[in-house]
Amino acid sequence: MKTCIRTVSLLVILFVIFGCRNQLKNSAPEIKDVESGSKFTEIANQLLQNEIENPFSISLSPTKTNFYIPALQSFAETSYNDLWIIIGGEVAGFHGTSNNPPPFSASVANDSMWVIDLKNEKSYGIPVPAQYRNALAVTNPQFYRVGNSFYLCGGYTVSDTSQTRFNTTSDYFFKRDAPSFIQYVQSGGSSPALNQVFPIVIQNDFVRVTGGELIVDGNNFYLVGGQDYKGKYSLGLSGKYTNAIRSFTLQRSPSGWSMASMNSLVDSVNLHRRDFNLVPYVTMDRSLDAIILGGVFTKENLSYNNPVYISGLKTGKPSITVGRSQQKCNQYSCAVIHMSVLPGTCMIYGLLGGISYMEYSSSTSGLVIGDNGVPMPFSNLIDFIISDGDSSAEYVQVPPRSLLPGYLGSNASFMPLAKYSSESYENIIDLNKVFADTLTNVNIGYMYGGIQSNGPTSGTTPKGHVNTYANPVLYSVNLTLKLDKAKINNEQ
What's the pTM value of the predicted model, to 2 decimals? Predict the structure, then answer.
């Protein structure tokens, strides 16, 4: 009964406070099912009386590590049984807004594969296999894990080892077996055989994409947005945007694995995006929809602020609906926390930093556009997007609540603790598990890597030169449900 009470109470939080409008399309618990005499009765009462606008709060604190963790940004990652798998990315900071020095030097590529064991304070790193050097030492690839299978494709890289700067987009697709990969890296590359670590390797122009996102539902693979950047990076030169959701399946024949059922849903207006956050939405039947949050660049070189809702993933025939809400902050690819209570109801997405259309001004105690006129500054904000899959609401965490401990999060990752993962999807946190024992300061995971800037605007500024770098600090991410604890405790 306690689990039911907890679920109902958290649903009250989502329905009443966040104003999602299209809830419980089939059936779900009602508020009257809350058991009297429980601390969750008082939580429900407070929320129903609108005594607090946004009860969730996130804080970050540096975590001291006594072992080596590589400082990277724009990498591919997954957490498997609380072991982190890290591939690709860069060891440098933001590439800059000038060509002096030339950006995307080949020397900044992460050419190692890593397994991080935070619990036992150990890290294991080995060079990427020579035959896949240019397909795995990539920056900004697309990736996704389902069970033991960790998929990766695309990314910006070098065409061959003679190149001194990145100059092409990879056309490789990999399936990696996560347990075999971990064993391979921990053994120093001695076992198992490489074809067990990478059981599927396909080369196809259909996945020649960087800065997009990959999501998988059943046998259907979806490559959302991004671009094909050809040649060495040059300021003002864009790649060829896909403007599409590309879908495909995998098939096996005597000659090996290949892609099949390749189709594209093209929308040159609403899907002309890269470097956004693609977040999963779990439907009532536990299948996946998805939402595009943010992305760049509009014709004005600004962010896209309206969400795009993607449905039909389980059928292999996706469709999109463009939302009307306008996201104010953290539109660029950043560390994202996916949180859920019950399939088919509101989900909460915590966006940690990145690059933002608006920033917090201490002089006005409010949000302002840009950094003193400079558009799209690096962010020190924590942003909540709450969505029911059809509509969304945004809550920006501003003082007196915590800001981030710096201008962080761009191209970083949130690594959740396995014990809080939902039953169906390991990368989605189940809030029923998080708040099972306490409402305050629960460590739900870590923010790893990404770009750190010494100010909201990098490069040469009126206040001097502002540096950026791949963030070497690991941050503990803590979640709090802010309610009147005195009233709750009086009921015990």
Answer: 0.91
